[in-house]
Amino acid sequence: MNPQFNFIDYFLQYTAACESPTDFFTWAAVSAISAIARDNIYLKTEVVTVYPNLYVLLYAKSGTCKKSVPLKKIRPIIKAVKNTKFIEGRTSLQFAISGLSQGVVNGAGEVIAGASGLIYSEELTSMLIRDDSTVDYLTDLYDYHEDWSSGTHARGEEKLSNVCLSILAATNEKLFKQVFNAEAIYGGLLGRTLIVQGYSARHKNSLMYETENPLKDDPLIAHLVQLSRLKGPLTMTDDAKAYFHDWYMKQNFEQHDSETGLESRLTVHMLKVAICLAMADGDLNKVITLKHLTTAMDMVIKLIPSYQMLSTNVMVSEEQKQSVLIMKSILKFGGKWLEKRELLRNHWFELDLALFPTIIEKLAAANMIETGYENGNEIVYRATEYAIERFVTRAKAKAAKNGHV
């Protein structure tokens, strides 16, 4: 062990020729430590035990920041250690869960026990075959579970032990919405995921000339191998404890709470990252210092502005799309009443039940629909005269004028 060595700093130097944002490489390195540490090391507190697993998503416009490069660089380094289950390639989450439940033999002939693993994807949406349970499973599996089970008709009951799942993936602004929809926002998956947004390359490299860089990946792999052998709790220095306590007691998380739920999870994110930063040091002494803690706090706080923007974009686009769908369905009935349950039956796959009440309330407030009850308790909707005039009558008149009717 070399006390002068730092895994993250070395990885940044090792990848110095690459154009991708520095933050992308930093978080790729943090993710590697998170995945290799598994559930072997942890920070035990009076109330909860904090494990270092992280969900990290690199986010940027398509083609602008070369977000897949940091993943490609860290992938062989993680896989070389062979102490955790590595899930990649196009798959369903149910199949990935099945893989976590099975014992895997590593290159040394040893069985990788437990359900610790890393979901790795250079484009998250192209890896995960989406179904109705994907968001629920990812949300639930973020927390450590000594025992976890799930049952399906096709696969029967899947049982996992010592679940400690990490994710390292990338996506762009358009595909982001396929996984992080309204359900993922309201249900807490977005708040559990560290979204690292890239805006521009750290420098330009035409690739026409080879950069002289004597650094190899051997020290990186050697450090992670040493980390993989550690077990037991970490400690925190007294000055770090005092600093975090004073900071925490001054915060009013409820005042700043948003739909993402990120604010209530900030402290856990900070502690998880602090564990990883401590384990990046060459001495691997399992001590979180004040520097580890404050750096982790700064890294997590730096991510906050992205959440409000991303969640707003998703909610607006998703809400607009579903508002149109609901309004068209109600307009088909003219001025007649449409039962809520019939509307949901006809569009069960397309409608997001988390958004549905909000959309109905807004349509009613805008005088587009009326709500009522039939048979005492059956909720019904119908289009208002204003909505029919605006969307149906005018459309027919315009079409007739243009000779289409």
User: Proportion of β residues?
Assistant: 15-25%
The CATH architecture term of the largest domain is 3-Layer(aba) Sandwich
Percent range of helical residues:
40-55%
Low-confidence stretches: 401-405
Largest sheet: 6 strands, mixed
What integer value in Å does the Rg equal? 25 Å
CATH topology of the largest domain: Rossmann fold
Q: Roughly what is the average pLDDT, rounded to an integer?
A: 84
Number of discrete helical segments: 17
- Give the distance, in angstroms, between the N- and C-terminal Cα atoms: 81 Å
CATH C-level of the largest domain: Alpha Beta
Number of domains: 2
Shape: elongated
How many DSSP E strands? Answer: 18
* Class per helix and strand makeup: alpha/beta
CATH superfamily of the largest domain: P-loop containing nucleotide triphosphate hydrolases
